[in-house]
Design goal:
Shape: globular
Distance between the termini: 13 Å
Helix content: 55-70%
Strand content: under 5%
Radius of gyration: 22 Å
Number of strands: 0
Largest sheet: none
């Protein structure tokens, strides 16, 4: 890599990411997208054929940008206010899944930190929390450290995510080397502007989910099944989504490791979730929120929007309550069938299966936010597939929805997003069949 290209790549990536972290206005789409395009152009310059010396530099840049973003209050997401709200409840010994915020506002009860100012900033005032116990524990620690400052609490949460991102870096280095893959591939994740902006920048716990998921994979490759199960439990405790990846372990663990892994996994999940069962209302509240997620929320969907159009044509009204759960069951069924049909038993092929499962889930989801692509981006590092990288750029078009209040989607842009990713996927499939890689790294570093 030439010095000039490297300097230009680092400068463009840094300028775009820092603008998105500290200066962007979510309602101003064109400056936002221009900054992201700038960062993505720099990203492409950085990840193309890195040398061993350059790899160390780019890793350092990725770490530095994450450290700086710790001190940027989230500007593209308002989920942080719900994190603070839940944190105050947990710190006060209350179960955040029993009552929605509107209950505390109407009754005038609840911890003192959950005041009217905070309530007004919540984007889900009438819904129960959907954040699992690992995330809830971080929320509670954050508000205990900084009980009177939203910014201070956000910094504490970001420090946790910074640690998980450092763990992800270490795990990517170990796993890529263990699988005999170029270590330079880790930059596909570690310098990706979407990952930088949405994980540490905008405080999304997909970063923790990924770190624990990779830790589980790393321990599995070393036959440490109890530890792998514990890491998988922590991944599920950060976000529930890794549960759908478990069927791919059935064949690979069949025999004694199967029982060891799943017994430890059950014990780990029990330790994490049983405390939330204390008192009444957890199952109904948490279950109700998950049910509403599939029956009411819709954003940047693909297959669902096609079905929704058919529903309007058939009955004249939105049938999300019908199609949302139907697509969720379809995704679960197809993923299970794909996993059972996968006859491979090696660990190197596992990330490819997980990538297929996660993409199937996203295609059937009624809601696909940009940070949902965290898992596909990290898993593509272990495969020849690169379409998640194109998707990680195009999905930022969804921020055009926030230029008006309430948000309104441009379905032409949604269609363009999925069409371009689909076309690229088909092209890439042909390239892979011809044993050609989309990205060339030259010597393995």
């Amino acid at each position: 890599m030439s010095l000039a290209r490297g300097a230009a790549g680092g400068l463009l990536l840094s300028a775009g990411v820092l603008y998105l972290g500290f200066a962007v206005d979510r309602t101003g789409f064109w400056p936002l997208f221009a900054a992201f395009t700038t960062a993505f152009a720099g990203y492409l310059l950085c990840v193309y054929r890195p040398t061993l010396r350059g790899l160390r530099y780019w890793i350092g840049l990725g770490v530095l940008l994450r450290i700086v973003l710790v001190f940027a209050f989230p500007r593209l997401s308002d989920d942080v206010y719900r994190f603070v709200w839940d944190g105050h409840l947990v710190a006060a010994g209350e179960n955040p899944f029993v009552h929605p915020p509107a209950y505390y506002s109407a009754t005038g009860t609840g911890p003192g930190g959950n005041d009217a100012r905070l309530f007004e900033r919540l984007n889900s005032q009438a819904y129960h929390s959907v954040y699992p116990p690992v995330a809830q524990a971080v929320f509670a620690v954050a508000v205990m450290v900084s009980p009177h400052s939203w910014y201070g609490a956000a910094v504490v949460m970001k420090l946790f995510l910074l640690l998980t991102e450092l763990a992800t870096l270490w795990l990517l280095l170990r796993l890529l080397a263990g699988f005999g893959l170029p270590r330079g591939r880790l930059l596909l994740y570690y310098l990706n502007p979407l990952i930088l902006v949405e994980i540490v920048g905008n405080l999304h716990f997909e970063g923790a989910m990924v770190a624990f998921l990779l830790l589980s994979l790393y321990l599995l490759t070393r036959s440490r099944y109890g530890g792998a199960a514990g890491a998988m439990a922590l991944s599920v405790g950060s976000k529930l989504l890794p549960l759908m990846l478990l069927p791919f372990l059935l064949r690979r663990l069949w025999g004694r490791p199967f029982w060891t892994f799943f017994l430890y996994l059950g014990a780990g999940l029990g330790l994490l979730f049983v405390p939330l069962l204390i008192g009444s209302g957890f199952l109904s509240g948490f279950g109700n929120s998950l049910d509403l997620y599939f029956r009411k929320f819709e954003f940047n969907a693909s297959l669902y929007y096609l079905l929704r159009s058919y529903g309007y044509h058939e009955l004249g009204w939105n049938q999300i309550a019908r199609f949302g759960p139907l697509l969720a069951r379809l995704a679960a069924g197809v993923i299970f069938i794909v996993a059972l049909a996968d006859r491979r038993t090696d660990w190197r092929s596992l990330p490819g299966g997980w990538l297929a499962a996660f993409v199937l889930y996203l295609l059937c989801a009624t809601t696909v936010h940009p940070w949902y692509l965290t898992v596909p981006v990290v898993l593509c590092c272990f495969t020849p597939w690169r379409f998640p990288l194109l998707w990680s750029y195009l999905i930022m078009l969804t921020y055009t929805s926030y230029t008006v209040v309430p948000y309104t989607e441009n379905l032409w842009l949604v269609g363009a997003e999925y069409a371009l990713v689909g076309v690229y996927f088909l092209l890439e499939r042909g390239w892979i069949k011809k044993e050609r890689s989309v990205l060339s790294y030259g010597p393995q570093v």
